[in-house]
Amino acid sequence: MPTDTPDATAGDWLRRSRDVVARARLGVRSVGLGHVVRIADGIAIVSGLAQARMHELLRFQHDHMGFVLSLDEDTLAAVLLDDDGSVEAGSEVLGTGEVLRVPVGPGLLGRVLDPLGRPLDRDEPVAAADHLPIERPAPAIIERDLVSEPVATGVLVIDAMFPIGRGQRELLIGDRATGKTSLAVDAMINQKHSDMVCVYVSVGQRAHAVQQVIEAVRAHGAPERTIFVVASASASAGLQWVAPFAGFSIAEYFRDRGQHALIVIDDLTKHAATHRELALLTHQPAGREAYPGDVFYLHARMLERAAKLSSARGGGSLTALPIAQTEAGNLAAYIPTNLISITDGQIVFDTSLFAADQRPAVDVGLSVSRVGGKAQPPVLREVAGQLRLQYSQFLELELFTRFGNLSDTRVKAQIARGRAIRALLTQPRFAAQQLPEQLAQLAALDDGVLDDQPADLIAELRRQLPARLAEGQPIPIGDALDPSTRNALVKRVRELVAGIAAAKGAQA
Ligand code: ATP
Ligand code: MG
Question: What pTM did the predictor assign?
Answer without folding.
Answer: 0.92
